[in-house]
Amino acid sequence: GESVGLHLPTLSVQEGDNSIINCAYSNSASDYFIWYKQESGKGPQFIIDIRSNMDKRQGQRVTVLLNKTVKHLSLQIAATQPGDSAVYFCAETGGTSYGKLTFGQGTILTVHP
Amino acid sequence: NAGVTQTPKFQVLKTGQSMTLQCAQDMNHEYMSWYRQDPGMGLRLIHYSVGAGITDQGEVPNGYNVSRSTTEDFPLRLLSAAPSQTSVYFCASSYRGLRDTQYFGPGTRLTVL
Prior knowledge:
The complex is a heterodimer of chains A (about 110) and B (about 110). With about 110 residues, chain A is mainly beta.
């Protein structure tokens, strides 16, 4: 079936470094992608989204890149802080999955002071 | 606004028991959904609703029932609990649908013995 997955399950960085979290998706009809952050014991929190008619979108310290050719999504976090430590999920919807969000497995980001 | 609230936070059931997980939102959101989150896996959609009186199945609906009699509430019922339903359950809502920001509740941790 269609799925969204992550290349790296864990990522450790030093405070102040830039972080890049990757995600591969398989549904070529997906047209909307979202990144979520989930801290321990809490529900996922929206970070940033991107539609398929864009290849880059920037937020505050975060940038999402979309490469539709290879069905790849990435989240870049600038000047990573200890408070960024969390699990990051990508999710997608579109095409036959309309009305449903499909989540990836998640990447654990650990930021060392 | 309280946002999305879920009760209870923790629950232990015996196999075969039934129970209802409560979810409420006070943001007048039309779209609500239930997910389960298991270790090493992303969130999986159980059921969703695009408005009062309208529900539909997600990826893993078996063993669960939902109803949407009001805009605010979207309870999830476990008909006959099984150990495979041990998980963390998240409710989410958004104004109109998946292309609006999804707000997640804090989750209910359910253990079925």
